[in-house]
């Protein structure tokens, strides 16, 4: 007789519904829980669908954070769910270890067809940082050099390798020695790049075509010239499209906006390696990919003895390969890139139009559904006092004064684009509609407008967060 009870997820969720944040605080990360409570982001989300989250009272929120850019077909996409169910029903010989991986070749083939350049092979990993580590290792072995050049504010992940080329000090502090022979240069600075590359020490230059932290755009020809410099000095160019790749900007690869492509298709440059992840997962099963030129890949996998020189236990598992294949399939079917380009243009134009009346508004920039709204110090004395007070408390605080009422009063979830920035970033699921954009634009107009009143949220939030900070400092 079998006395085992069934696992009941619904029951588990219901029984802990009122303790979610306490459990997180007690057993996962108390500081994270404290931050959520302080900034009012401790909403009890009960369900999600498409571009929306729903709280336990059934209220809908437009999700402009998109799980950090991982939902190309929307949250809980029925198509991806169906693909996962198919994979499970087929009782596939998942993870043979030593034996043929059924689906990896198919996904690699699709990625190589889509990538704008002449690439030869794909190495799969699980998270983005893991793929960055793999790309670094490939570049080092291929060039037999150590050096790595990366950009200020470049973000490539937080494993020790990826962190070593991440140009945001706040993530690096306190962890001791990272990879040796790394050099940080300013983004968009070709002279600095040339100076470094001409030393002949560098294996790779790693760059995001559009920087995620701050949503910084490359200046005209920067990427093409950088690729020429890399070629001239024998350095591998790694384009990190983990966030901006796979449709986010309205093209399969963001680099295509800047002339990247095969020469026969009019492309003027291409990187040696692309890394992608995030959206390839369909928002369900983590998967990342290093798309490399053949000779670079061959430098690692140079003989039968070296055939497993780089590997991860869970990469190429059937579920991650399935979601990758299904994501690419349905994005093509639904013409997701065209949709993203159209809706992204609508959002940018609407925000620009309705926010330019405000002193604190600086600009909107973006490609597709990777959009930034930047603010600036106002001219009028009263507002400047508020601006300075908030910035003195914390240089990342001003945007929070907009994001908090955006969430609580307008039910739009978004994020600050990075530490010490007056930039809000919007990276929603790629199913966002024009009607959603209208709501987002109105929410911005109302909230930014309120910040221009002396009794507005800038002061209120400043006071609230200052008090919370003092309490934390006293702990
Ligand atoms: C450009 C870029 N590279 C690398 C990473 C790291 O990916 P992961 O968080 O999956 O390790 C990220 C994550 O946000 C990213 O945006």
Chart the SSEs and their pairings.
Elements: H1 9-15, H2 20-27, H3 30-39, E1 45-49, E2 52-55, E3 60-63, H4 66-69, H5 78-89, H6 104-114, E4 121-125, H7 128-143, E5 147-151, H8 160-164, H9 169-172, E6 182-185, H10 190-197, E7 202-207, H11 222-233, E8 236-240, E9 273-276, E10 288-292, H12 294-300, H13 318-333, H14 336-355, E11 361-367, E12 370-375, H15 381-393, H16 397-410, E13 412-413, E14 415-416, E15 423-426, H17 434-451, H18 457-474
Parallel strand pairs: 3-13, 5-6, 5-7, 7-8, 8-9
Antiparallel strand pairs: 1-2, 2-3, 4-10, 9-10, 11-12, 12-15, 14-15
Helix pairs in contact: 2-3, 5-13, 6-13, 7-12, 10-11, 14-17, 15-18, 16-17, 16-18
The structure holds pyridoxal-5'-phosphate (PLP).
Pyridoxal-5'-phosphate binds next to helix 7.
Describe the structure concisely for a colleague.
The protein is an alpha/beta fold and 475 residues long.
Instruction: Write out the CATH superfamily name of the largest domain.
Output: Type I PLP-dependent aspartate aminotransferase-like (Major domain)
Question: What strand order characterises the main sheet?
Answer: 4-10-9-8-7-5-6
Number of domains: 2
Unreliable runs, pLDDT <50, ≥5 residues?
A: none
Which bin fits the share of residues in helices? 40-55%
The end-to-end span amounts to: 54 Å
The largest pleated sheet is described as:
7 strands, mixed
Bound molecules: pyridoxal-5'-phosphate
Q: Helix/strand/pairing class, anyone?
A: alpha/beta
Radius of gyration: 23 Å
| Overall pLDDT metric | 95
Number of helices: 18
Shape: globular
Beta strand %: 5-15%
Q: What fold name goes in the CATH topology slot of the largest domain?
A: Aspartate Aminotransferase, domain 2
Which CATH class of the largest domain?
Answer: Alpha Beta
Give the beta-strand count.
Answer: 15
CATH architecture of the largest domain: 3-Layer(aba) Sandwich
């Amino acid at each position: 007789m079998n006395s085992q009870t069934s696992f009941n997820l619904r029951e588990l969720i219901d029984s802990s519904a009122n303790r979610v944040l306490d459990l997180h605080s007690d057993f996962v990360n108390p500081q994270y829980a404290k931050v959520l409570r302080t900034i009012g982001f401790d909403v009890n989300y009960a369900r999600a669908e498409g571009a929306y989250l729903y709280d336990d009272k059934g209220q809908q929120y437009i999700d402009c954070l998109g799980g950090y850019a991982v939902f190309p077909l929307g949250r809980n996409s029925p198509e991806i769910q169906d693909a996962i169910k198919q994979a499970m029903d087929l009782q596939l010989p998942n993870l043979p270890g030593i034996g043929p991986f059924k689906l990896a070749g198919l996904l690699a083939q699709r990625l190589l067809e889509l990538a704008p350049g002449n690439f030869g092979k794909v190495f799969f990993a699980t998270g983005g940082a893991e793929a960055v580590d793999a790309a670094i290792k490939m570049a080092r072995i291929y060039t037999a050099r150590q050096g790595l050049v990366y950009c200020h504010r470049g973000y490539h992940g937080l494993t020790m390798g990826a962190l070593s080329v991440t140009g945001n000090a706040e993530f690096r502090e306190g962890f001791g020695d990272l990879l040796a022979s790394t050099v940080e240069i300013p983004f968009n600075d070709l002279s600095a790049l040339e100076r470094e590359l001409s030393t002949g020490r560098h294996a790779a230059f790693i760059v995001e075509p559009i920087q995620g932290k701050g949503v910084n755009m490359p200046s005209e020809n920067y990427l093409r010239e950088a690729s020429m410099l890399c070629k001239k000095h024998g350095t591998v160019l790694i384009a990190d499209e983990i966030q901006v790749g796979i449709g986010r900007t309205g093209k399969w690869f963001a680099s295509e906006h800047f002339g990247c492509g095969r020469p026969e298709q009019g492309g003027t440059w291409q990187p040696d390696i692309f890394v992608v992840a995030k959206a390839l997962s369909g928002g369900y099963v983590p998967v990342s990919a290093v798309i490399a030129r053949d000779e670079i890949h061959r430098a690692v996998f140079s003989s039968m003895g070296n055939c497993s020189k780089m590997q991860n236990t869970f990469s190429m598992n059937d579920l991650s390969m399935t979601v990758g294949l299904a994501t690419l399939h349905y994005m093509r079917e639904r013409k997701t890139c065209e949709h993203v380009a159209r809706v992204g243009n609508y959002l940018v134009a609407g925000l620009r139009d309705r926010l330019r009346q405000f002193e604190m508004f600086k600009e909107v920039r973006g490609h597709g559904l990777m959009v930034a709204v930047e603010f600036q110090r106002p001219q009028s004395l009263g507002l400047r006092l508020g601006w300075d007070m908030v910035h003195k408390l914390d240089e990342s605080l001003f945007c929070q004064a907009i994001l908090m009422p955006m969430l609580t009063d307008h039910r739009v979830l978004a994020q600050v684009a990075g530490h010490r920035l007056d930039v809000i970033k919007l990276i929603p699921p790629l199913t966002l509609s024009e009607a959603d954009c209208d709501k987002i634009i109105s929410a911005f107009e109302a909230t930014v407008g309120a910040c221009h009143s002396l009794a507005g949220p800038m002061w209120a939030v400043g006071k609230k967060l200052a008090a919370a900070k003092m309490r934390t400092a006293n702990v």
